[in-house]
User: Fold this.
Amino acid sequence: MEIKQMVEAIVRELLGQQAARPKLLYLFYDSTSHEAFTDHFITLNINGIDHDLMFLDGEASCWLGKHKIECGGRGKTIASDEFAPAPIEVPLSYEGIVIPEIDLDNAARAALGMKGTIVSEIIFSALVQNKFVLIGEDISGLKRADRRTLQTLELPAPYRNLLDYYKMELQMYGVEFAPVKLLAEKAVSKIRAETQGSPKIEAAASASPTPPASSACVYEGRLVSAEWIARELRNPSLSTLRIGKKTMISALAQDMLKDRGITIEYMAEG
Assistant:
C-alpha cells in the first residue's frame, strides 16, 4: 500500500468514515491513452466512485500502480513482486472492469475462454465473479501500436465481421458494450442499480406480483442471424419467434434462442 493510501485509510478510520466507495478498474493498452478519458474520471468522482488505471506493456504483462503483473506460464513467475496479484485475482478488488478498446486477438481469446493474456484473464475472472465488464462498442479492433505500425485505422471487412461475431459471443457471456464516450455513465448506472436496485425490486414485487406479459416476434426474412437475435433479446418479454417454413436459422442463433427459452413457431406461407 502506498503512503498516501495508508494515510487516507487511517484518517478515514479515525473520523469514522470507513465506508468504502465503489471502485472501477480502467484497462488501457498504453500509458498515454488514458489522457483522453479525464472527463470519465471526473464523472466517476462526482458520483462517489473511485477508479484505478491498469496499463499493458505487452500481451502478458501490465502495470497496476507500482506493481508489475504478469500472466503465468511455463518457467515464468505469476507476479514480479510479492505484493502484485495474479491477473485472475485483479477483479476481486473492483465492482466492475472498463476496457475502452479491445483488439481482435483479445476479443477472440475472451470469447473462446482462452487465458494467456492480461485482458482475457481479467475478463474471464470478472464474469465468473458476476462482475460487470464494459467495453467500447465503437472500436477499430486494432491496437494503437498496430495502427501506428500499419498506418491504418480499420480492419478489413472480413476481420471486421469476425470482430462483430466475437462481440456477439461476449455479449452472450455477460460482457456489455457501449459507446466509448458513455462508458463512465454506463458504469455509474450499473453500480447504482446494484446498490439500490434490490429494495426497489422487492417493493415492485409486493405492489404488482403479476409477471410481465409475454410477447411474440414475427420474422419475415429468409435467414435468422445471431446479430438479429442479439438485438431482439433486449426485449425481456420476448417468448416466441414466428418464422416462415422456408426460413433458416443459424446455429449460433438457435443456441441463443434455446438459452433464453424462446420457442419457435412456423407460420403457413401463402
User: Anything to note?
Assistant: The chain has two domains: 3-195, 215-267. The chain is about 40% helix and 20% strand. The two ends are 72 Å apart (CA to CA).
